[in-house]
Request: fold
Amino acid sequence: MSELGSTLIRAREARGLSLEDAERDTRISRRYLQALESEQFEVIPAPVYARGFLRSYSQYLGLDPQDMLLLFPRDEEAGYGQAASPSARPSMQQPASAVGPARPTWQRPPQTRVAKGTTIETPFEPTIGIDIGVPSPSRRLKTDPAAQARSLTVLIIAIGAVVVVVLLAYLISNLGSGGDSSSTPKSTSGTLFPAGSQTLAPGAGASASAAVGASGLPVKRGTVPDVLGQPLATAKLALQEAGFQVNERHLNNSKPKGTIIDQSPAPNIAQAPDSTVNIVVSDGP
Reply:
């Protein structure tokens, strides 16, 4: 074994690699890698393959491919280092042979098959992915149709869930906004009164100048005075001065006892004379 094969073996063993590891990583058949290390180049189909394998294998082992190619036997070296025997000069009658002592012989291992009990040898054809070092199509990853179907189903379910949530949110928002148009009036403090207890007269809402009455509050006849927060006696007197009937209701509340906590209609609303104004009186906590 010359320097080429020993260099390859030392480099591979120094990295702790086996021929199986090198075959898996370089995609070069282990038979060809072993042929490079043992310098049995006749196993490799053609010189161009041998040089290509040597270049890839050297780079994989961390060696300089150019230096290793310099150690590779040249075609003109007879028998890879053996002395060349003199040969006759080629002529028209005796042309140079394609295979001779001046040119290495690249043998292609024959392949055999059995047909009706007879063994037939067929010419060797290098297999892409095994003999030439190109990944075989059979080693490519195969997609799983069942996994793709599951992924598509999950995606459809997720989209449907998002659509349902959006529709529910839209319906809830519409129902919430529709509740504001209830026929039941709401007073300024948020307490509901029976429908029909608020009757607006023409010109309602117009706040004209009001005189201070005996109750001490600004009062204008026909306009609901603002009695929120006032004592019950003051509120009743102001409403009577404005010409209204008083309907009071008592509730427990955090405000002091006898304080007006709500009224309907709202203040400064014009009402017909002798109409009723509802007030809510706190009975204390």
Summary: The chain has a mean pLDDT of 74. Residues 145-178 form the longest helix (34 residues). Strands lie at 111-115, 118-122, 211-212, 218-219, 245-251, 260-264, 276-282.
